[in-house]
Amino acid sequence: MLTAAPIATRPDFGISAVACRSDHTRWSEPEVRADYRVVLVRRGRFRRTAAGVPADIDATLAYVGAPGEEESFAHPSGGDHCTAISVAPELWRSMAGETAGPAAQTVYVDPQLDLAHRRLLAAARLGDVDYAVSEELLALLATAISRTVTGLALIGGASTGHDRSLVVAAREAIAEGHPASGTLFSLAELLGVSPYRLSRAFPRELGVSVTRYRHRVRIGRALDRLEAGENSLSVLAADLGYADQAHLTRTMRQYLGHTPTALRRLLTPVH
User: Fold this and answer.
1) pLDDT per residue over 245-255, tens digit each?
2) Do 12 and 185 touch, CB atoms closer than 8 A?
3) Is 58 helix (H, G, I), strand (E, B) or coil?
4) Which uninterrupted H or E stretch holds 191?
5) Cβ distance 196 to 154 under 8 Å?
6) pTM reported for the whole predicted model
7) In angstroms, rounded to a whole number, what is the distance separating the alpha carbons of residues 179 and 173?
8) Which H or E run contains 205?
9) Which of 77, 172, 199, 230 is deepest in the core (most CB within 10 A)?
10) SS3 13
11) Which of 76, 71, 99, 226 lies closest to 155, judged by CA?
């Protein structure tokens, strides 16, 4: 029995929690997918074969799939729980190159990649799919691509000398509340660069991620509103682009150690 629960879904990617409770040594019927995939095991193990090459997949070895690849699976040791990442070909090529596919079908999950996987899931639990999850996903993909696409430097991975102007333009769009600044991917499209390139530029120029920078701008606006006596936290959350009041509250507590209600009391003391 196979179940898949969506964790985060956007046009360029999908992240799902997949659980398989099968127990069979036979290979399944061949499957062919149209996307790139990175699948990391959380618990258990299984077998996969592609292009006639079998591999034992567990928490220390992830697999990378390519469009048009024929693959089959077996579960000789019981079930497993995985994080399945589906990547649109356009996003993959924006990072790896127009003609690049994975030269290796598996990637060793060292502590760095394990942490990237856990950070992705932690970001998903906070609910900020369009920035925090997107940035963690790009970091994980960068690691996987660099280890499976041989002899190819990541596009946007090295400084080009244009980071400053790119960050200036991104900051302006975020400050002005441009509609495209609603997601990291649409902001990158507005600026004519790959999401990975934009994500990498901010730490190099400002020392913080684009996600943290955007939070800084939105938190500043939230504090302005609270200081002015904003009464409706749900309206405030909607106006600032948070998913809901709970998302706003989690963010304020994470960055400032206080809930919006407590901050309102701090900023508007009773004389």
Assistant:
1) 999 999 999 88
2) yes
3) strand
4) helix 184-191
5) yes
6) 0.85
7) 8
8) helix 195-206
9) 199
10) strand
11) 99
Query: Cα–Cα–Cα angle for 13, 14, 19, nearest 5°?
Result: 155
Q: Are 173 and 94 in contact (CB under 8 A)?
A: no
Burial class (CB in 10 A: 0-12, 13-18, 19+), 172: exposed
Average pLDDT along the chain: 89
Instruction: For residue range 24-50, list pLDDT tens digits in order.
Output: 778 989 999 999 999 999 999 999 999
Which amino acid, 102? Answer: P
What span, in angstroms and rounded, lies between the C-alpha atoms of 192 and 148?
Answer: 26
**Which string of DSSP letters, residue by residue, matches 105-124?**
SEEE--HHHHHHHHHHHHHH
8 Å CB contact between 202 and 208: yes
Task: Name which of 77, 81, 79 is nearest 18 in CA terms.
Answer: 81
Name the pairing type of β-strands 106-108 and 2-10.
unpaired
